[in-house]
Design brief:
Length: 177
C-alpha cells in the first residue's frame, strides 16, 4: 500500500505598492505590472513537508518562489515554491528538476540545453538579487537592452554556499506586455 506524504498548505497574498511619483511600483519591480493598478495576488499551495538534505546538514538554504507569467481568470498568479542548497545549482536546473515552466513555445523547441548560446531561458528577479551571482559576460551580451532585473536561468547560480534567504522569480517576463 502506498503511503501518503504529509503536506503543508500555505496561503499567501502578495500586494504590490504603487509609487505615486511615476505610477510604477517601488524598487526593482518597476516592470512587474507597468501602467496597471495595484494587484492583489492570492494563492494556496499544498506541498510535501520539506525534507531537504541541506537543511538536515545545516548548510545554508535558498527559498525560491516562481510567479507565473500571466494572471488566471480569477486575477491570481500561479506561484510555485522550491528550496535549494545555497550555491549548488543553476536556476535553470532547479526549474527543470521541479517541472517549473521555463521556456516559451519557441524555447521548448529551440533551446541550447543550458549552454548560454540562445537566450530563451529569460527570467526576471523580483526580489533577492543579492543572493545570486552577478551577470555573466554571456548575459551582458544577450540582455544588454533588457532591464537589469532580467537574467538567463542557465547562467544564474542560486546562492554562494554561504548565504541564505528568499528569491522571487517572474517566469517568462516577456509575456507581461
Amino acid at each position: 500500500m502506498a503511503s501518503m506524504l504529509p503536506t503543508n498548505v500555505t496561503s499567501t497574498s502578495l500586494s504590490l505598492p504603487r509609487n505615486a511619483a511615476n505610477g510604477g511600483y517601488h524598487g526593482r519591480s518597476t516592470s512587474f505590472l507597468p501602467g496597471r493598478k495595484p494587484t492583489l495576488v492570492s494563492f494556496s499551495v499544498a506541498s510535501p513537508e520539506p525534507t531537504s538534505p541541506s537543511t538536515e546538514a545545516g548548510r545554508p538554504e535558498i527559498e525560491l518562489e516562481f510567479i507565473g507569467p500571466k494572471a488566471g481568470s480569477d486575477g491570481t498568479y500561479l506561484v510555485e515554491r522550491v528550496k535549494a542548497a545555497s550555491g549548488e545549482k543553476l536556476l535553470r536546473n532547479l526549474m527543470l528538476d521541479n517541472k517549473i515552466e521555463l521556456y516559451a513555445t519557441y524555447g521548448k523547441i529551440m533551446n541550447c540545453g543550458g549552454g548560454g548560446s540562445c537566450g530563451t531561458c529569460i527570467v526576471e528577479i523580483l526580489d533577492g538579487e543579492e543572493l545570486l551571482n552577478k551577470r555573466t559576460n554571456t548575459e551582458l551580451r544577450y540582455l544588454k537592452k533588457k532591464p537589469e532585473s532580467w537574467r538567463l536561468a542557465c547562467q544564474t547560480i542560486v546562492g554562494n554556499k554561504e548565504n541564505s534567504g528568499k528569491v522571487v522569480v517572474q517566469r517568462l517576463p516577456q509575456w507581461k506586455k
